[in-house]
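Progress report, Aim 2. The chain analyzed during this reporting quarter is listed below.
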Amino acid sequence: MLTPAEIARKARSALKAKADPIKARGVERYFKSYETIKSYGVAAPEIHALAAELHALVKADWTAADAVALCDILFADPELEAKAVGALLLGRFKKTLPPGLFAKAKSWLAADRLASWASVDVLCPDTMGALLERYPDFVEKIKAWARHPNRWVKRASLVSFIKLARKTEFLPAIYEISASAFPVDDDLVHKANGWLLREAGKSDPARLEKFLLAHGPAIPRTTLRYAIERFPEAKRKAILLKTKTA
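Predicted structure tokens for the chain:
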């Protein structure tokens, strides 16, 4: 059986072989506000293909715990692509995720192992969303993440519900977490919150509109603009006007 350390070495070797220094510099400039961000310059389709290849090597032998161990290794790498491979491979075990992953994920985020919106957004909508659906008790616990001092923990509290927003039973928790994040002074949290609200509005647009009008000026304008993107133009303008700070 291939160990997590061996798969990590294979992942790094493959990423180095595919590396494009010119693309890497472009990625690093794009994420220039995060000093720790590094890149191999490997395109997203190639990263997904690599994760699939590695999963094929271990799927007969590994459990989700082995995939978590791989993430422990690859999340320590500075390159975005290494982190993505770990998160994507872990996502392939989402039907058998252990409950201990909840605390583990929080520790990764709080320690800045996933210190970019891109890394958080690879891990959370699929894998953390699946964990919340598998263990509903964690829905209450993740609400506190929105008040955590670390920006990535806060963003994770929101984007972990992106796919669950299609399920109406999660909407009460989604709107509660969303409202609790309004006071956060962080553009990356504002954008994540707007994204989540936009997804929630797909299943019940009337509820989203009522929520936005009820909270009005308390909503960061970035969040609001993201949230109303799917509304008709006339309704968007009306909501922007009605929620404007006096």
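The radius of gyration is 19 Å. The chain has 14 helices and no strands. These observations will guide the mutagenesis work planned for the next reporting period.
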